[in-house]
Amino acid sequence: MSEFRKASRIDAIGVSQILQIGAKAAQMKRDGRPVIILGAGEPDFDTPDNVKDAAIAAINGGDTKYTALDGTPELKRAIQAKFKRDNDLDFDLSEITVASGAKQILFNAFMASLEPGDEVIIPTPYWVSYSDIVAVAGGVPVLVPCSDENGFRLTADALRAAVTDRTRWVLFNSPSNPSGAAYRREDYQPLCDLLLEHPDIWIMADDMYEHIVYNSFEFITPAQVEPRLKDRTLTINGVSKAYAMTGWRIGYAGGPQSLIKAMAVIQSQSTSCPSSVSQAAAVAALTGTQEIIKVRALDFQARRDLVVAGLNAIEGINCPTPEGAFYTFANCAGVLNQRTPSGRLLESDADFCDYLLEDHDVAVVPGSAFGLSPFFRISYATSTEELQTAITRISDAISQLAS
User: Fold this and answer.
1) Is residue 2 part of a domain?
2) Rg of the chain (C-alpha set)
3) Measured between alpha carbons, how far is 212 from 175 in angstroms, rounded to an integer?
4) How far, in Å, CA of 396 to CA of 117, rounded?
């Protein structure tokens, strides 16, 4: 029997490093190690009761059949109202799509729009799936480093330097995974002004962490900042983070009807409709009380402050204060090129993170996984007690290093 031959399109793609680290840490816990896992990108809160009740009612009511391909009318109306309420954006129902998670929205959009060699500009650090999805779709990810000196935000000068005649999309993620950086109107405006000069470039705005912002930060999305770009902008969101519904797998987007129709073609030949029960639950999330997400954002803010203060108290670590999401992205350059008690030289952020896991039972993700070193990401979507213990362990680990 001949050996399996994998498709060349996935030659440069592997399983997410976040998942690899999480799997290794989980196995260590099963083996009895007291590992604290700070890699997961999901809230530790439970799905709100009104959302669970809506799902149960849907099941009991027999709402368990196929639905319309890219979202029920009820959910599309709820999304339409959400865009108007939260973003002052008007979309016709034909300009809204629903999929099995925001990742599928991204996949559908890139598969529907990219020709081989088309370029997608991705500010870096970036969520690990962006570049791989672009590559699978035949595109070329153009990674533009955004330093901590500029708050990990893309500048107009950097964008201008990255644009070529093959540029098809620019992708924004605010607040960002992994850095927690968020764009204000004044940050977006020069970028939007530049994009107005390039009518063939489309804009993708991943707003998944919209409702997890701190210190009265006012969220805004590119189509709000510059309405003249709305006709070539795909505004992406979902219920996973704000409503603690990661496992329900519902993402959605608003955009030009021509793009939405093309994305439906891709979805029709992959998953077809999202789960009917999950869609009913998402209606309840979007139309019910929104107070719970504000309360939970305050809880996340307290955890953020704990982690940022704790990390900045450690010699060799510099941690900017994120405006949103539930991650810190700290610079660890000050602890590299030192040796562990066993004599291992820490040459990279990956080495440092491996040391924290193997020797001190703390699982974090190196910045290299997100395209920018030397940093490491902590997800503070876990208990205050675990965060305090993790910071203590990281401090102890660094104190044991020798030059």
Assistant:
1) no
2) 21
3) 8
4) 48
